[in-house]
Specification:
alpha+beta; D-amino Acid Aminotransferase, Chain A, domain 1; D-amino Acid Aminotransferase, Chain A, domain 2; nine-stranded mixed beta sheet; 8 helices; about 30% strand; pyridoxal phosphate binding
Length: about 270
Amino acid sequence: MYWINGVQEETVSASDRSFNYGDGGFTTIKTMDGKPVFWSLHVERMQACLQLLQISQPDWKQVRAWVEQAAIEQGLGGVKLHVSRGSGGRGYSPAGVTESMVTISEFGYPEHYKDWQLNGVELGIAEHKLGINPLLAGHKHNNRLEQVLLKADIEQQGYQDGIVLDLNDHIVETTMANLFWVKGKTLYTPSMEKCGVSGVIRRLVIQDAQMLGMKVLFGEFDMEHLLNANEVFMCNSLLGIAPVVKITHKSYPVGIITRDFQESINSA
């Protein structure tokens, strides 16, 4: 079921700029008993994306009311919050488009995520590579064609998910989540300065690690660096944190640091 600016609808205008050009941004939110989890962080990431794209900000208090209207009332669920620039303009030019459009859809919580959280995930390595795009790096804009191709690539390989590299063979993320690994007492995660999506849970992991006095290093890392890790985990807003127990033929234990982050973040 879909809500467009708070009204149940089944169709979107053919002149909508997100439909035509991917002109907008979105975020996917876990809900608990009808309430969005980490709402303020989702709003902040959407505000940053829309500001970059020069799209007018909706009334976020009203948007929250729409999200709660759409969300599953009992237990865990999910909501996709999608903002389009709206309709109008000529060709690529957004001139004259003043009113953004908010589309909200709800869905059931993926049941296999609970197994991933407990037992871990096995990852492949995508053959396709992410392009370098510093202008949009870190933001979850509506043009997701690279991710569509990457997900198809990993599914054809027969993996649950897969690691994505950029054109320079540096690790970026998985097809659906941010990636962290531990060596000794240091936490590593790829930089989001050239491509990739910087997720809400990634931000929380970094904040928690720094509060605990753990050293966090951001950078451009190759696969050899990751394969020599002591423990690996992945995260996104719906999944929370899940251990990575295998990357192709390399196995990893479920580490104590991963479990600690799960305890502090997944229970929220």
